[in-house]
Amino acid sequence: MKTRLTDISLFLLFCFGLIAKAGATVVSVPFEIKDGLILIDASINGERGAYIFDTGSADILINSGNHNGSIEMITTKGIVSAKEIDITTIEIGELIIAGQKGLQLDMSDLAPNVHDHDIKGLIGWSVLGDRAIIIDYEERVIKVNQKHLDMTREELATKHIMKLNIDYMLSDLPVVNVAIGEESYNFAFDTGAAANVIDRGISGQKKGWFKSKWVSHNLSFENGTRLKNAPMLAADLSSFRDELKSKDLHGILSVNGLEADIVIIDRSNHRIYVIWDKDKLSGGAYASK
């Protein structure tokens, strides 16, 4: 058997290229959110329906209870079996992608509520290659091949934009730097995670953390943004980290957990932008610097 691992000025906005027009054709894909998951309408091998869109996965998964799995998938929920299949076509809005490999498995092993939403499968980030995307949680639309914001200067002035540099990729997961107190940690950035997660294993470095399953911490980022009292789920990520062959992965930043309004992921330039309304940050669950 083989194993498969699944406050920024307008001047800076121009410098970062956030409002510069992109040359490639933009594909808009509506989505909805169910239980923290991004669901899009797509078709894989002619099977149209709801698919999870997950920038934290490198795989294409097809939900099926009938398969003779010869592949072991290592997940945070343990080991599940899967079967490799050929993907002839994937249709996401007007985007058509051919010649991919996928895995067929019972996805209830990964997400117990998958059958409640009649989910056909999961489409991972690798399908899009290095295409830049905007995930607009306010408008509920994903824009592929776009890295600029369709906003006026007045509208942009109402937003807080946090720029993150992608330090490296780990099994198709962008990894960014997060500071908690005086210590810096590596967090994977994942649109498919329902909550922020921090590894319980690093609790030995900070006495008094993890007295309960849910914790909150002040998070600091390289552009000066600080998020106060960010909720995080304390979990043992040691086995998951071992399988990813990364001793330095300390947690997961979830877009859902950050309550972001818009996220721009530009892998070719190694950047992520997380965007909130300033009023939301000042009066909501978090407070920014």
The CATH homologous superfamily of the largest domain is called Acid Proteases
Give a count of the beta strands, DSSP E runs of length 2 or more.
21
End-to-end Cα distance: 50 Å
**Strand content bin:** over 45%
What is the count of helical runs?
Answer: 5
Helical content class: under 10%
Q: Quick summary of this structure?
A:
The protein is mainly β.
Notes on the protein architecture:
The N and C termini lie far apart (50 Å). With 289 residues, the protein is mostly beta strands. It is globular, with a radius of gyration of 19 Å. Strand 3 and strand 4 (47-54) form a beta hairpin. The protein has two domains: 2-6 and 25-134, Cathepsin D, subunit A, domain 1, CATH 2.40.70; 150-283, Cathepsin D, subunit A, domain 1 (Beta Barrel), CATH 2.40.70. The strands form two sheets. Strands 3-4-9-5-8-7 form a six-stranded mixed barrel. The chain has helices at 10-16, 153-156, 238-243, 255-258, 278-283, and strands spanning 2-4, 27-34, 37-44, 47-54, 60-63, 71-75, 78-92, 95-105, 119-124, 133-136, 141-144, 159-165, 168-170, 173-180, 183-190, 197-199, 214-220, 226-235, 249-254, 262-266, 271-277.
Layout of SSEs?
Layout: E1 2-4, H1 10-16, E2 27-34, E3 37-44, E4 47-54, E5 60-63, E6 71-75, E7 78-92, E8 95-105, E9 119-124, E10 133-136, E11 141-144, H2 153-156, E12 159-165, E13 168-170, E14 173-180, E15 183-190, E16 197-199, E17 214-220, E18 226-235, H3 238-243, E19 249-254, H4 255-258, E20 262-266, E21 271-277, H5 278-283
